[in-house]
Amino acid sequence: MEKHETPAADLLRDSMERAKTRAPDTSASRRAALKMGVAALGTVCLGGYASLARAASGREANVTDAPVTNAASPRDSVPFYGKHQSGITNPRPANGMIASFSVLAETPDELERLFRRLTDRAVFLTRGGTPPEYDPRLPPADSGILGPNIPPDALTFTVSLGNSLFEDRAWLKPHKPLRLSRMTRFPNDALDAALCHGDLNLQICANTQDSTQHALRDILKNLADQLVLRWMQEGNVPVIQPGPDGLAESARNLLGFRDGSANPDSGDTALMNHLVWVGPERGEPAWALNGSYQAVRIIRNFVERWDRAPLWEQEAFIGRTKVTGAPLDKPHARESDVPDYTSDPQGEKTPLDSHIRLANDRTPETQDNIILRRPFNYFNGVAKNGQLDQGLLFICYQADLEKGFITVQSRLDGEPLEEYLKPVGGGYFFTLPGVARAGDFFGSALIAAVRASAR
Ligand code: HEM
């Protein structure tokens, strides 16, 4: 068996072993941290639960851990500079959005100007500060919706490029990431063209919706001559009350199930290097190193119908226990416990066509298909037919789009859960490598590659 294992299978097994051995420590120290409670809140430097969990246990909090009630502060800040962009492996704050744009740049110079201005705005918005005061005869520098001082509020600003940006510009096309394609329809999709694709998207996340909205308006104002907004979808993550044992829990989605229980450990650098970040072994253009592929899907949930489905059916369709998130073959276990499919080959406990079993059958052969999910729930009011328009803003990252999202979604095609889901929008994007330091800018390596090939 070992002989057939892929590097991902090895890394995942090691990652899970490490998680097991640190579990008691983590739980005890988290409990202590949560007891420290509000006293520590003024000093956190990363969003909500992340700071508590990390400060207390030395363990990186996971992407899909639920933010804890009252644990977030406007002063939370997530470092902007780095090898990779933020907003991918760091835990979600309570609010997020994807805003997708058409890019007006037609030349390398114009594209560089766009990237540099986006970088300037991202540096300011993620750090916070006081906008300049202009002559009152001019429009003010800032919308003012957060007052005269902009708090960082754990804002992250993640820039990704769409297939059309490359395809529509002859000078950019030769530099397209190898696996970037235009999202095509899956059998259960009812895609609305007005909610799909785009040349560039921004994933903006923060503790509060006011901050994500403020950042979007800042971009719309400052880059009005370079970007045209095509569609956007906001979402949020329900915050939780700290439990009596202080253990991290995944947030719940709008089907009422914990979402993220089996996500790979985003604090495990070796695992993330293998599954999420583009490394040299992928054969991608050199400029794309340390970037990632992003798949976005706006998936409507038919919540009225779901709320009338029996509990046994809900659990069978997902493959987990609703209240705790435990696997169905270990109903008294924790959500972090792993189902044992080898002891259940006929799917008597966890149905073979349940969501989690189709998404990841936990054989060594499929471990290279693991994706890092970073979803948000959305609430869009009432649809024209009088039903609630709610669902999941599904976002995932992977080093290989084909092995990751496209393969997993293809395995999910036809799953019983589809009765309650309808994907209506989204797209595939390539998330740029990080902005390394002050003076660097988003996409600098791409622009350098374009200029080098023009010489
Ligand atoms: C509205 C749509 C969706 C809902 C409500 C949903 C819900 C869930 C739930 C409740 C779980 C179990 C807990 C967990 O491990 O997170 C789960 C697991 C998972 N989902 Fe989804 N999901 C949705 C869409 C998708 C899509 C589009 C994909 C990818 C194509 C996906 C991939 C996965 C994967 C990989 C797992 C983990 C399986 C495992 O390793 O055990 N899900 N999902």
Give a quick set of tags describing it.
single chain, 455 residues, alpha+beta, nine-stranded antiparallel β-sheet, 11 helices, 9 strands, globular, binds protoporphyrin IX containing FE
Biggest sheet layout: 9 strands, antiparallel
Shape: globular
Beta-strand residue fraction: 15-25%
Q: Structural class per helix/strand content?
A: alpha+beta
Give the number of helices. Answer: 11
Through-space gap between termini:
52 Å
Task: Give the number of DSSP strands.
Answer: 9
Rg, rounded, reads: 22 Å
> What sequence of helices (H) and strands (E) makes up the elements?
HHEHEHEHEHEHHHEEEHEH
Hetero groups = protoporphyrin IX containing FE
Average pLDDT, all residues: 89
The helix fraction, in percent, is 25-40%
Residue windows where pLDDT falls under 50 for at least 5 positions: 21-59
Please give the domain count.
1
Q: What does this protein structure show overall?
A:
The chain is α+β, with helices and mostly antiparallel strands. The chain has one domain. Helix content is 28%, strand content 16%. It has eleven helices and nine strands. Strands 1, 2, 3, 4, 5, 6, 7, 8 and 9 form a nine-stranded antiparallel sheet that branches. Protoporphyrin IX containing FE (HEM) binds next to strand 5, helix 9, strand 8 and helix 10. Protoporphyrin IX containing FE binds next to strand 5, helix 9, strand 8 and helix 10.
Helix and strand topology:
Blueprint lengths: L6 H30 L11 H10 L37 E9 L4 H20 L28 E7 H5 L32 E7 L2 H14 L4 E10 L32 H7 L16 E10 L1 H5 L3 H8 L36 H5 L12 E2 L2 E7 L5 E11 L3 H11 L8 E11 L12 H11 L1
Antiparallel strand pairs: 1-3, 1-4, 2-3, 2-9, 5-8, 5-9, 6-8, 7-8
The structure holds protoporphyrin IX containing FE (HEM).
Protoporphyrin IX containing FE binds next to β5, α9, β8 and α10.
